[in-house]
Design a protein that fits this description.
single chain, alpha+beta, 54 strands, DUF3352 domain-containing protein, 20-stranded antiparallel β-sheet, 904 residues
């Protein structure tokens, strides 16, 4: 009897223990877990979604999905999903299983080399458990997959390998949730996090925030700003990372709502300020957000802009500047700037050249700041025993302050990289640049209205951004394309090129922070520039055709209307009459010049009315006419009845409309005149001993006027305004040339570089002291291959063209081949290059024999799928409002205007 009692007691204890264990496991499985508490604190981003079918459907309707779906990472994910879906049980496919779930996706940086994702998926019903169990069994049976189960710190981890694609993922179950990742390291980290207990949510600051309850919101996006530098460090070169780390310390975290539109991605919400000592936020401590008033000074070619809206600009200073004799004056000057300051990088055209940059700071009082600036300039001048250098450019004065890293000393180390500073005061702003040429270009852009404040596309973009902010970053991915290439790590450059379609398509990006009580309202916008319906997509649309009584013998010379600056053209017929045609196709003025125009028409502001006038040369004369075709006073004037002029160059040395006209003859003699026809001493003639290869070019460097003259025999001259040769010149390139060079002006003659290409394809760079800096030979397939440098109309970028037995190849500024085309004849072709900035490029190639012009877009595809009948070079301009192009061409006795639109 006692033995039976003991037996029953033991059995009861065993059954009770099993029941308790089963109940505990059931209770644990029923216990709900906040998925946010499982996310490791190293996550850079966490995305929460709850309606995947609607999200996917909306994405597929947008341009974003079209671009994103071709990326390798998206294609691999879709392939994996398709294979898993193929082994899913019954008709409850994966997509149905995942729909309507609150799923988290966290993004992590592993080992400073890789980005990995973790997915957190709840399993909410018996049916879903059954689905997953059957799916797991089917995976085991399918030869495409290999499954292994292992134990790690009390958790069963399952590793699944796709034997066909070669990739794998790891997952485990925790309280009716599946945690899955391609990285077993991250899965194991989450297991360790669970075992440590006391799970805290990475988004605890936003526990009561849920944007998913709002209409048209597709995700909650958590941002961990403290982890962003590690993410950026995977792609950017190390020398940029100190600035990235500093800027990332403006806030510590954020919760943003994700919205999608046809051509936009919005992220809006709030960020918590970073409170760590030495952070950017504790340094800046901004209060009231400020508007972007500086937009009237920002060129449309701006690639990257950092804008700071802060009452006291001096708060940006980080105490890293040296303490020397200039410090008290610099401290006083720094305190005189307020409201806003910006650091802008301009579009560049190759990855081997540093982009032009400018600092634009608002003055509290132009008089006070100007006085303090002049006090610093005089102090530096006295210490260096040098006279203060100033230069007049139009109505503005440019001044050199030869003090290293002046902007960094004034505004903090974010503004470093200025070997010296050229300074320009415009209205209530002071602009700093390390290169005087950048400031001249800025003035030209402002005068031409090519600034953000007057750009239709840019104004439309700014309307959708925050109108006031404390810290804003603006990026135009097309303008910044070569900058991104330049500063990416070498191993990531290929990925950038592969994803170029997506990156360049959504070209307008903004990230903004505006103070709102104890947080920052945060707005992130990825926007595709609006496309209007003007023009025919991928084809030509005729706007007008104008017949003339006589054959046309000139290309359509592009001009601007002297009154309203609209785009017009001038053509010359075989009776030697010039005809003006307006933008609407009406006939304007005519002028019989009784000789053929050489070179082309140039527009300058002549006379007391300061209106645009037209200047050109014929065989023996220099002409200038007004907007009605009437000769101006003193024009035309004869150079010589015995000469045959080849080219006309017009220089305005002081930008004060005191023009000089420089012409050359067939023997290489140069003649210069003023606007009254008076000969300039030293130029009557200035003998070059050989024919010129191209029109002479002028550049001002350090207050010196330099006229660059290239001869066909390869000799290079650099002359001053009196025709005298600069030291180091002439020198010989030892190879013939037949095209002009491109000048990149620097702070002095030594740092000003000229690029030329020889007829045989040798690219030579030399400075204006006559020192050759580099030589590089382009591929030359045969001895008949000849090369020319072809600049765009603005002279800011160029291509190099190789012609060889009917084939034309083009190379970019990094000497990489853009395209090669074959044509009907082997005769030399007329090659044109139009670069309107922002990726708006057109290449034109004209064959004189067949009288055909072929136009190609930036992808080197033939526009409209056909050639144009044309016996002269064409004229093209870009219409920003309609995002289309107008082309003027001549054929026999007809002038025609067409419009076209480049395919996306």
């Amino acid at each position: 009897m006692p033995k039976r009692i003991v037996f029953f007691f033991i059995a009861f204890v065993a059954l009770a223990s099993l029941a308790y264990y089963g109940f505990s496991r059931w209770q644990d499985s029923q216990q709900k877990v906040d998925l946010w508490t499982l996310v490791p604190e190293t996550a850079a981003f966490v995305v929460e979604t709850n309606n995947h079918s609607d999200l996917k459907k909306h994405l597929e309707e947008t341009d974003l999905w079209e671009s994103f779906s071709v990326l390798p990472v998206a294609q691999r994910f879709q392939e994996n999903m398709a294979m898993l879906d193929s082994v899913a049980p019954g008709n409850q496919r994966l997509e149905r299983f995942l729909d309507k779930k609150h799923i988290l996706t966290s993004v992590h940086v592993l080992g400073k080399t890789d980005v990995e994702f973790v997915y957190y998926i709840p399993v909410v019903s018996v049916g879903e458990h059954r689905f997953l169990r059957t799916l797991s069994e089917n995976i085991i049976k399918d030869p495409l997959f290999k499954e292994e189960i292992r134990e790690y710190q009390g958790m069963l981890l399952t590793d699944v390998t796709n034997t066909q694609l070669g990739n794998s993922f790891t997952y485990f179950s925790f309280h009716n949730n599946i945690i899955l990742s391609a990285s077993p390291v991250l899965v194991e980290e989450i297991v360790r996090r669970i075992n440590r207990g006391k799970l805290n949510s990475i988004a605890a600051d936003y526990k009561k925030v849920n944007y998913l309850s709002q209409e048209d919101v597709y995700a909650n996006v958590f941002v961990n700003y403290r982890a962003l530098p590690d993410l950026f460090g995977l792609f950017l070169q190390e020398d940029l990372m100190p600035q990235v780390r500093y800027l990332s310390s403006f806030c510590r975290n954020a919760m943003l709502e994700l919205k999608l539109d046809q051509n936009k991605v919005f992220l809006n919400g709030f960020s918590n300020p970073e409170t760590l000592e030495g952070s950017f936020q504790t340094q800046l401590r901004p209060s009231k957000p400020r508007p972007l008033d500086i937009k009237q000074l920002l060129p449309t070619r701006t690639a990257i802009l950092m804008h700071f809206g802060v009452r006291e600009v001096a708060r940006l200073r980080d105490g890293k500047a040296p303490n020397d004799a200039y410090s008290p004056t610099i401290d006083s000057l720094a305190r005189s700037y307020s409201q806003e300051i910006a650091l802008a990088y301009m579009e560049s055209y190759n990855m081997n050249t540093s982009p032009d940059k400018m600092v634009i700071a608002r003055m509290e009082s132009s008089g006070k700041t100007g006085t303090r600036f002049q006090a610093l300039a005089e102090q530096v001048s006295k210490a260096q025993n040098e006279k203060i250098y100033t230069e007049k450019y139009g109505n503005y004065t440019l001044q050199l302050l030869d003090l290293e890293e002046l902007p960094a000393r004034l505004f903090g180390s974010l503004f470093a990289g200025f070997e010296q500073s050229y300074v320009l005061q415009i209205d209530n702003y002071m602009v700093f640049s390390p290169d005087i040429a950048s400031l001249r270009a800025l003035i030209d852009d402002i005068n031409a209205g090519e600034v953000w404040g007057r750009s239709v596309a840019q104004k439309a973009f700014l309307e959708e951004t925050l109108h006031e902010g404390n810290f804003s970053l603006y990026l135009n991915t097309v303008n910044a394309w070569y900058i991104l290439n330049r500063y990416l790590q070498e191993e990531n450059r290929e990925d950038l090129l592969q994803n170029s379609s997506l990156i360049r398509r959504f070209n307008q990006v903004s990230v903004q922070f505006a103070r709102a009580e104890n947080q920052y309202y945060t707005s992130v916008l990825f926007r595709r520039q609006e496309r209007h319906a003007d023009g025919v997509q991928g084809g030509y649309e005729e706007e007008f055709t104008i017949p003339f009584a006589s054959r046309l013998i000139s290309p359509p010379y592009p001009i601007q209307n002297a009154i309203d600056r609209s785009r017009e053209v001038v053509v010359q017929d075989s009776m030697l009459v010039l005809h003006n045609i307006t933008s609407t196709g009406t006939r304007g003025w005519t002028d019989s010049v009784q000789a053929q125009v050489i070179g082309g028409l140039q527009q300058v502001e002549l006379g007391s009315e300061k209106r645009l006038r037209y200047v050109f040369a014929t065989g023996t004369r220099i002409h200038a006419i007004d907007h009605l075709g009437r000769d101006l006073e003193h024009f035309p004037f004869n150079v010589s009845d015995t000469l045959r002029l080849q080219r006309l160059a017009v220089f305005d040395f002081e930008k004060n409309r005191d023009y000089r006209f420089l012409v050359d003859d067939a023997l290489g003699n140069l003649y210069m005149f003023d606007t009254r026809g008076n000969a300039i001493p030293g130029w009557q003639p200035r003998r070059m001993d050989y024919r010129l290869a191209a029109t002479p070019q002028h550049v001002r460097v350090g207050g010196r006027d330099v006229i660059l003259v290239l001869l066909e025999n390869g000799y290079v001259y650099a002359l001053n305004a009196k025709g005298e040769t600069y030291p180091g010149f002439p020198f010989s390139l030892r190879v013939p040339i037949t095209s002009e060079g491109v000048i990149r002006a620097g702070a002095d003659l030594r740092r000003s570089v000229v690029t030329v290409v020889s007829r045989y394809g040798e690219v030579v760079e030399f400075n204006l002291q006559g020192q050759v800096k580099a030589r590089e030979q382009l591929p030359r397939p045969s001895k008949s291959a000849m090369f020319d440098l072809v600049p765009d109309a603005g002279g800011r970028s160029y291509i190099i063209v190789r012609q060889d037995q009917g084939k034309v190849a083009a190379f970019d500024q990094d000497l990489k081949e853009l395209f090669e085309k074959r044509y009907v004849t082997s005769a030399p072709k007329i090659v044109q290059y139009f670069n309107f900035g922002g990726g708006n490029q057109v290449y034109g190639i004209t064959e004189n024999g067949p009288q055909k012009t072929y136009l190609y877009g930036p992808d080197a595809r033939l526009i409209g799928g056909r050639s144009l009948e044309s016996n002269q070079p064409v004229s093209i301009h870009y219409n920003e409002v309609g995002n289309n192009y107008s082309v003027f061409k001549v054929f026999r006795n007809e002038l025609q205007k067409l419009s076209f639109k480049l395919p996306d």
